[in-house]
Amino acid sequence: MKAIISTFLLATLLAAGQASAHHSFAASFVEDEIVREGVVNRYIFRNPHVLIYMDVTGENGEQAEWMVEGSAATSLRNRGWTAETIQVGELVRITGMAGRDGKLMISLEHVEVLDPDTRTVLRNPSLERNQGQAAPTEIVSIPMQLPDGRPNLTGAWVQGRDGPGFRNHRLPPFNEAGDALQAQWDPINDPQVACEDPGLVRQAGFTPHPVRIEQFEDHVVISYEEYGGVRTIYFDNRDLSDEYRRLGQSMARYEGDTLVIESTHIPANPTGTPGHWLSDRTTTVETYRRLDDPTQGPMVEMEMIITDPGYLTEPWEMVWKKLYREEYEFIPVECHAPY
């Protein structure tokens, strides 16, 4: 089937990929819009990407398996998708961007489930992009403080309405070395494309996805829906060493109504889908505080101050705000590297 050049659609896709995917879609796809029909043999409703594997019969009569890659399951769940939306054995028609370097891949931009005999459309699950994750319909109230006076950060905190303030990540203030490294960035070299685990800044600062915080007497546990990372951070140095760890070496403390976490020994790593590599001299300070909103409910703000004398001229800030969500369940992670 003839490919149609659609630069606008790719730009839209890339913007969405930056916001809700674990790697940039430019790592896997090019500017050619294509259509493929095939029979579903696997449907994986997991993070970091919803995947459909389908058997496609070519013009020569030979069958080949294609990978269809969509947004994060977290994002598609907000658009009504579930683990039952697509069924194995269904005939589907997928419209999206062609795989990079001729790979048998297509991005999930439009999907139609077809009648196998007549090819008429039976249904087309919506892929409309909402403005961020909807806030709960009923605003709940939880105490600002725990009984012992510490700030009450416990619970699941989800992405708020996507607007100014909910996610404020300015561009990194690179020095000459950082600029030179960024100029060489190619999304195909993103370690997350190969399903490698991310570093601290990407996991804790860049993520637009839900976070769960648990508070204990001598430590806190922070879990992330994106990538499935879990951090156990003590209020003393019992867990610290000279070893470089993916999520760094961290120690926590309370300062008034805030939780402060300082981290060192962070390996060099890209900090998001645009690249933005930092060196292994990076240190971070995270500050968590409650900033409730009467129109949306309980809220947590996280500010991360990032210092890197290797690639930055000055500290770099990342800020996100997330809303409290009762009984929120994380979607498991099952990463599949592209063909």
Give an overview of the whole structure:
With 339 residues, the chain is mainly beta. The protein is built from 4 helices and 18 strands. The protein has helices at 7-20, 73-77, 176-183, 200-206, and strands at 4-5, 29-44, 51-57, 63-69, 91-99, 105-107, 110-114, 121-123, 155-159, 167-169, 211-215, 219-224, 230-234, 249-255, 258-264, 283-290, 299-307, 316-325. Strands 9, 10, 11, 12, 13, 14, 15, 16, 17 and 18 form a 10-stranded antiparallel beta sheet that branches. Strands 1, 2, 3, 4, 5, 6, 7 and 8 form an 8-stranded mixed beta sheet that branches. The radius of gyration is 21 Å and the shape is globular. The model is unreliable at 1-19 and 131-136 (pLDDT under 50).
Topology:
Layout: E1 4-5, H1 7-20, E2 29-44, E3 51-57, E4 63-69, H2 73-77, E5 91-99, E6 105-107, E7 110-114, E8 121-123, E9 155-159, E10 167-169, H3 176-183, H4 200-206, E11 211-215, E12 219-224, E13 230-234, E14 249-255, E15 258-264, E16 283-290, E17 299-307, E18 316-325
Parallel strand pairs: 4-6
Antiparallel strand pairs: 1-2, 2-3, 2-5, 3-4, 5-7, 7-8, 9-11, 9-18, 10-18, 11-12, 12-13, 14-15, 15-16, 16-17, 17-18
- The assigned structural class equals mainly beta
Mean pLDDT, nearest integer? 89
Count up the domains.
2
| CATH fold assignment of the largest domain | Lipocalin
Low-pLDDT runs of 5+ residues are: 1-19, 131-136
Helix content: 10-25%
Total helical segments: 4
Largest sheet: 10 strands, antiparallel
Architecture (CATH level 2) name of the largest domain:
Beta Barrel
Assign the CATH class of the largest domain.
Mainly Beta
Distance between the termini: 21 Å
Molecular shape: globular
Cα gyration radius (Å): 21 Å
Q: Give the amount of beta strand, in percent.
A: 25-35%
Element string (H = helix, E = strand): EHEEEHEEEEEEHHEEEEEEEE
The count of DSSP E runs of length 2 or more, i.e. the number of strands, is: 18
